[in-house]
Amino acid sequence: MFSFPNSKNGPAAAGAASDLVKDGTDRTFMADVIEASRTVPVIVDFWAPWCGPCKQLGPIIEKAVRAAKGAVKLVKIDTDQHPMIAQQLRVQSIPAVYAFFQGRPVDGFVGAQPESQIKAFIDRLVKLGGAAGGEGDLLEDALAQAKEMLDAGDVATAADIYGQILEAEPENAAAYAGMVRCLIAAKEYAQAKRMIADAPASLAKDKDLAAAKSALDVAEQAQNAGPIPELMEAVARDKDNHQARFDLAMALFAAGKREAAVDELLEIVRRDRAWNDEGARKQLVKFFEAFGPTDPLTIQTRRKLSSILFR
Which PROSITE patterns does this UniProt record tie to the protein (predicted)? Predict the structure, then answer.
């Protein structure tokens, strides 16, 4: 059997480490991973003997798991010898690492990672696995992490996390809406529409999905906005050119500059609240629906809008 260089993964070492690190198979996956994860998070490392990055990752992740002193476990699966589980999880390249808790995948990554990131990955699992509420807290953390990645522009990672959650819970509203937002961020508007149309009946009136639909509507509305530099120049020439300022707001929104977009719409309301049948105020309301009622920008902008309208 293949051994990572400088790693102690033979039977004696495994026994001494209280089975913190073990070799898994398709046959033992249910016991080694799914059932074991009812107690502590279990990390699954999919590898193969010919994989160079696997050799780099193996010792690092084993060291970090052992350092966690039983708070997490590691199961290594040779995909050459045991391909079935990897195929079910749609593993396309290795090394691929999945973390399971309470019988479902909750986190993961692909490719060799530096030791600092591996430690952070395991620390997160240790913290969440030991937190009160266990399963719910870990799911909430996964959702929070996905949103953080999406907000930071890392659409691929966010979609991967949302996808893992949906694989375990197809009707998880937050994850479903999050995946729609990933498609919107990737400008895959047609696919986002299909996903909204195909949403489970239980999600039909969900507020997160409604907000995602509003985000899609605004994104489609904004995609034809003119070039930002030209619109900024037009506004600079005539500060009461409300149509140019409105178009600038939409172009800024399309470019991901949310705060700048709402500021331009607020300026129109400040200068002429009745312009275009209160078009700027109505567009702000659409933004609020897209952002969601608890988004800090929604709360902040509502305050500003109220101070303008009722001064």
Answer: THIOREDOXIN_1, THIOREDOXIN_2
